[in-house]
Specification:
Blueprint: E1 4-8, H1 21-30, E2 38-40, H2 58-72, E3 79-83, H3 89-94, E4 101-106, H4 127-131, E5 150-153, H5 160-169, E6 172-174, H6 181-191, E7 195-201, H7 223-236, E8 238-245, H8 252-269
Parallel strand pairs: 1-2, 1-3, 3-8, 4-5, 4-7, 5-6, 7-8
Helix pairs in contact: 1-8, 6-7, 7-8
Length: 282
């Protein structure tokens, strides 16, 4: 079954001073998506309030999460969510938590802070930890993601608290230099899942090839390595969803220059056989 594209131009989860570029990035990608298969989630204009928590803009993040989940309850088949910041995954991955799914987290950062450990209060640094059941009570999913179903790929920048969590939790992790299709497939197989959700923060890429992100980190994946890895996974496992996040072009010209790379990644996500695992949501 062909994928549905859902565009979520959320910026409120970002800690970047250039967070509004995420809205432009989402709109730029939207312009190259098939109109009949693309839907857009409205994001409030206001920043939102922390509600006395350590999560900046929590109210808007929760509102967007709820709107996305409500919308996705009426969608069948795989969904590719276009951010916006990484916080859009709260609803997108929340949609598939009742399925037999492994989450592949392609990201330069593990996003494994809690509100207490975060140095910035920006939610995009807490997304994965929240999905795993540790975070603000207003945002933690009713059925958290089991940690044994997660594979971190390409993470290379984290603070002390995240390092301690990743090391103590035993979460599966594949570094940039170790990424090979066979290694990734073995890691997914070890989760015991039969389907996958693929999260892609574009900062997983090396900034020498792609730098339209808020927080570029050196020594990342090549575009070719990322595409090869995605193709290998979706050829073996049913894709129930994916997220493409953190595209923050500085100008329309820069967006146009980088869109071929994004379309190449989207092509890889759609390269698997026609399967309907987890399709029914009605």
């Amino acid at each position: 079954m062909p994928a549905t594209f859902v565009v979520v131009p959320q910026w409120q989860g970002s800690g970047s001073s250039r967070a509004m570029r995420l809205v432009d990035g989402a709109e730029a990608i939207r312009g190259d998506l098939p109109a009949a298969a693309t839907r857009v989630i409205d994001v409030p204009l206001e920043a939102g309030d922390s509600q006395g928590t350590a999560v900046h803009r929590l109210t808007t993040i929760a509102t967007v999460r709820n709107s996305l989940l409500e919308h996705l309850n009426h969608v069948t088949g795989p969904v590719i969510t276009i951010g916006g910041d990484c916080g859009v995954e709260l609803g997108a991955i929340g949609r598939v938590l009742d399925q037999d799914v492994a989450v592949l987290w392609f990201d330069a950062h593990p996003d494994a802070n809690t509100p207490e450990s975060s140095e910035t209060g920006a939610f995009h640094g807490m997304v994965l930890r929240t999905l795993l059941g540790e975070g603000s009570a207003q945002l933690v999913p009713p059925k958290p993601l089991p940690i044994e179903r997660v594979v971190l790929v390409g993470a290379r920048s984290s603070d002390d608290a995240e390092n301690a969590y990743v090391e103590s939790s035993g979460i599966r992790s594949i570094g940039v230099d170790d990424l090979q299709p066979a290694v990734l497939l073995a890691a997914v197989e070890a989760t015991g899942a039969t389907s996958v959700y693929i999260h892609i923060d574009l900062d997983v890429l090396d900034p020498g090839e792609f730098d339209c992100v808020g927080f570029p980190e050196p020594f990342g994946l090549s575009v070719a390595a990322l595409v090869e890895a995605i193709k290998a996974v979706v050829a073996r496992f049913a894709l129930v969803g994916a997220g493409l996040t953190e595209f923050a072009p500085a100008s329309l010209t820069q967006a146009a220059d980088d869109l071929p790379t994004i379309l190449r990644i989207l092509g890889a996500l759609n390269s698997g056989p026609d399967r309907t695992a987890g399709a029914s949501r009605e």
